[in-house]
């Protein structure tokens, strides 16, 4: 059922519209056998697509993109005077998720970035470079999503790169909003509330309501990644993707469990010495990417299940039309040309042997 990257992109050009009316619109409309198939096939495709290896690749790009992304985020928040408070809050959140050793690894670097903020043209140039570097992870995630949806990348670089940069910008802005929302709490929230004339009740309500709001933003970020990065025209955008919800919940549970294991049973520090924190941090990012890929597989199999229940032949591949086939067509011509050259080389060698 799985066709790895490069084997199936062109065939989906004749796929039915992404919003075909015959497909069930709501997960509640899925029949019990369809739901069972979706759950089984999600696990099967997760293994067949070698998502553990994909997560390892994403971890590499995440590490390369992490500090440029932090620099960009801290730079933006520094413009409103929230960089130090945000850094402290983010580190506290990571500790709460059980990533104490990861915090010990990245906190000194983040604090150094916070202290070394530049201004003017230097800030703009540094922010642009950091922003470009941070988009590397989004590009890698796009390639992984193409594997999940069994489609080739058909968008040429001049179309693909701006889209990936736009997604990176959106993600960074949403993360910045989330970070600022987390910072505005406790005494700071009361101070701001007093300045703008909010009552103590309103400040208390904000202290409670901000958590589901922040969770919604995080789920929305994942839903955006799932919807926009693959080279397939998906059905209408869903603000709360089931795969995104499952990915976030899985990530929280796995992070807490991993933190508990590291704190109580592991001996990374004894085994790796000063590198123990780095190893733990890399494992945590890998687990995070595993959760994201599992959620992506669930969304993809939900779409396959909807198609199968509607009578659309999606047994071998998910029938969604590609966003663009320009690169696919160009690569096909290059491959055909290479085959012709190889054939001519073989035939020329055969004629030489005959003479």
TrEMBL record:
Compositional bias (Basic and acidic residues) at which positions?
324-333
Q: What is its main location?
A: membrane
InterPro entries associated with the record: Virul_fac_BrkB (IPR017039)
User: From what superkingdom does this record's organism come?
Assistant: Bacteria
Q: Which UniProt key words apply to this protein?
A: Cell membrane, Membrane, Transmembrane, Transmembrane helix
Membrane-related topology note: Multi-pass membrane protein
Q: Which Pfam family, any one, appears in the UniProt record?
A: Virul_fac_BrkB
Q: Where is the composition biased (Polar residues)?
A: 1-14
Report the GO terms under cellular component: plasma membrane
Chain ranges passing through the membrane: 58-81, 119-142, 163-188, 208-228, 240-263, 275-296
Q: Where is this region: Disordered?
A: 1-32, 313-333
Where is this gene product found? Cell membrane
Leader sequence segment: none
PANTHER family for the chain: INNER MEMBRANE PROTEIN YHJD, UPF0761 MEMBRANE PROTEIN YIHY
Name by which UniProt lists this protein = Membrane protein
Protein's organism: Actinopolymorpha cephalotaxi
């Amino acid at each position: 059922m799985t066709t790895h990257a490069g084997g199936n992109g062109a065939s989906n050009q004749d796929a039915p519209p992404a919003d075909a009316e015959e497909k069930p619109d709501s997960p509640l409309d899925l029949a019990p056998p369809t739901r069972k198939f979706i759950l089984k096939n999600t696990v099967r495709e997760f293994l067949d697509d070698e998502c553990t290896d994909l997560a390892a690749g994403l971890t590499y790009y995440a590490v390369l993109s992490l500090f440029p992304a932090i620099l960009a985020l801290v730079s933006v928040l520094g413009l409103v005077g929230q960089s130090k408070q945000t850094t402290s809050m983010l580190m506290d959140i990571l500790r709460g998720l059980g990533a104490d050793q990861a915090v010990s690894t990245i906190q000194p670097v983040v604090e150094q970035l916070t202290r070394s903020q530049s201004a003017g043209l230097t800030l703009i140039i540094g922010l642009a470079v950091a922003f470009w570097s941070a988009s590397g992870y989004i590009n890698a995630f796009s390639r992984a999503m193409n594997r999940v949806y069994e489609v080739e990348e058909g968008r040429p670089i001049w179309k693909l790169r701006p889209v990936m940069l736009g997604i990176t910008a959106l993600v960074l802005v949403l993360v910045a909003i989330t970070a600022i929302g987390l910072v505005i709490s406790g005494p700071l929230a009361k101070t701001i509330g007093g300045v703008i004339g909010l009552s103590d009740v309103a400040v208390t309500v904000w202290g409670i309501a901000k958590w589901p709001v922040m969770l919604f933003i995080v789920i929305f970020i994942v839903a955006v990644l799932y919807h926009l990065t693959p080279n397939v025209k998906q059905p209408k955008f869903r603000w709360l993707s089931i795969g995104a919800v499952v990915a976030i919940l899985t990530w929280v549970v796995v992070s807490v469990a991993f933190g508990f294991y590291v704190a109580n049973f592991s001996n990374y520090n004894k085994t790796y010495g000063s590198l123990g924190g780095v190893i733990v941090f890399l494992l945590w990012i890998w687990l995070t990417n595993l959760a994201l890929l599992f959620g992506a597989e669930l969304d993809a199999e939900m779409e396959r299940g909807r198609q199968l229940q509607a009578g659309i032949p999606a047994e071998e591949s998910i029938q969604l039309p590609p966003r663009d086939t320009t690169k696919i067509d160009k690569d096909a011509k290059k491959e055909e040309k290479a085959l012709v050259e190889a054939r001519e080389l073989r035939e020329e060698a055969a004629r030489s042997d005959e003479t």
